[in-house]
Amino acid sequence: MKSIHRYLLLSLIAALSIGTLLVALFLYGKSAEEINELYDSNMKELAGVIGTRFNASRVSESANADANSHLHHAAILEEEEFLIQVWNKSGELIYTTHPLIEFPLQAKRNFFTVNYQHKKWRVFIIENAHGLIQVSQPQEARHIYIWSLAKGLLLPLLLQIPLIGFLIWMAVGHSLKPLDRISKAIQSRSASSLEHLDLDITPKEIQPVINEINSLLTRLENAIELQRNFTSNAAHELRTPLAALQLQIDVLARCKTEQERVAAISTLQKGIGRASTLVAQLLTLARLGSEQSIQQTVIELNQIVKPVIEDHLDQAAAKHIDMGFYEMPSLYIKGNAEAIVIVVRNLIDNAVRYSVPGSKVDVITYSTDSSVVLEVQDGAERIAEAERQRIFDRFYRGYSSHGSTGSGLGLAIVKDVVEQHQGHIQVRSRPDFPGNVFEVSFPNQVDV
Amino acid sequence: MKILLIEDDPMIGESLSQFLKNEGYAVNWCQNGASGSQAIEAEAYALILLDLGLPDISGLDVLKKLRSMKVITPVLILTARDAIDDRVAGLNAGADDYLVKPFAIVELEARVRALLRRSTGHTGSELSNGEILLDTVTKVLHFQGQSFTLAAREYAVIYALLETPGKVWSRAQLEERIYGWQEEVESNAVEFHIHQLRKKLGTESIINIRGMGYRVKKS
User: Fold this and answer.
1) Interface predicted TM-score (ipTM)
2) Does B14 contact A at CB distance below 8 Å?
3) At what angle do helices A258-290 and A207-253 cross, to 10 degrees?
4) Do the Cβ atoms of B31 and A402 come within 8 Å?
5) Which residue, A344, A368, B28, B73, has fewest beta-carbon neighbours within 10 Å?
6) Can you give the pTM of this predicted structure?
7) How far from A300 is each of A85, A234, A305, A413, CA to CA, in Å?
């Protein structure tokens, strides 16, 4: 897991170190340049002084005396030490400060840099009427001085790293405190407390996160509320079939004749069947709620509708209901086949169940540019205008469904599934048709 | 004793009316609030069993309406709603008792009996004119040291006669009281039940007033 604290700390300290290093390099370069310039001008001045003395046709004793201290130096290591050599017009070396160093007379004039015995030398040569004066110094000697100068500068620079680092650590820690506070506030909550987090105590930067968490909490609360309502409704609805079962068993227990007993057992079986259906429907609803959009594949609608109609033919025949199917071929929708079967089965089942004996049930499928439509036209009592929206509510049992033992969940399940498939369901009536028309449309999946 | 059952669930309604008939009550069963209200206006009942979750009108509205019409028939609410608020609302709307589904049938039976007793001004579970004694719990008839078990309809007839001893009941009144809708009433059904009772109690205990009907002696 990424720690903002550690990341901030490491990156800020790394930035600080790199910055310090760059400053140090810059300072080093700048001071080297300045020092080089300084020594160059020293060398030039020295050559000028020697030149004026040399003017007196010979190198003065005092110059010799100056150089005496270097007589035995085989190398030049101090910053103020220069190799001074004088040649006369005929090319004779007439004077040198370091007899042990055999640095030759260079061909160039004025300032330049040459390599001599694998070292870089800075050289200044002037020529006057009497000869040549060459003042030279190895760069190394300068570097020693530059380095010792730089050391004095680097130390405070390096010392600032831990000092500023500590301050950064404090600042980072302090600025992340609100996060700690929020996480503590969340930690100390119980699963049931869904009040919003306080926006006042949080810094501006975290507020979008808090806002999102709060809106998630709201959504969660709504979902829990829905779930709670559903559970309590479901528990309530289970009471009716349970009450029926209780009564049926009581009646069975009090039966006096064999004939009564057989009748009572048959009613009891129906009662158990109804309770089982309700439980199955409740489970379907619960599952639909939790497993949204599982396994969406492309489905051909007619292939689902046909077997469902076949399943209901006997039931329809028993009520002398004339069942018809009008299909437009190749209707493709995207969805979960199992769930679509539930939709089709519920609609056709309702149509057959509520249609009056001797009426007609037509199932029609067709497509438009944007949608695939399934229409189920029944021969049942017309659903009143006012009831048309409510019939899709959970546990609503319509006035026109009286006498049935439905749970009031079938159409609620249908609506849930249809909406999960971005579809739309409505019920209407047609002037040329006696019953109701249930129309379900799904988005058309033309490209297969 | 005629009971009006207003219950939309076909299974509960069927079992309940079957059971009550077996126990000697006449039952009229309505499956929605509108027909229930009509039934209340059309006929007098000893008791109303009322479901609250009806498809058209809420049971509470049915109850309020009948109380506003000054109908004092005892009402027992049968409902799946068990919250205290619901019970209070039901009782405040004029219900006499409240039974939450699912319920045991013996409890329903006891409550029905208690409500009927209260509404007819009796305090105990026995009805008597000093000579004949009817135990409404066991449905056993006691007469001159002998005990008789009764068929459902016989019980219903003697119950009516003993409820207000001395009151004359016409054949039509007794018929209406002991038969519900959709029950075939044979022309001499009441006479048959009276005959069965007289076989147990002797001809003197149930008196026929010509042109008026039947009564038992006033204590």
Assistant:
1) 0.73
2) yes
3) 170
4) yes
5) A368
6) 0.60
7) 106, 34, 9, 21
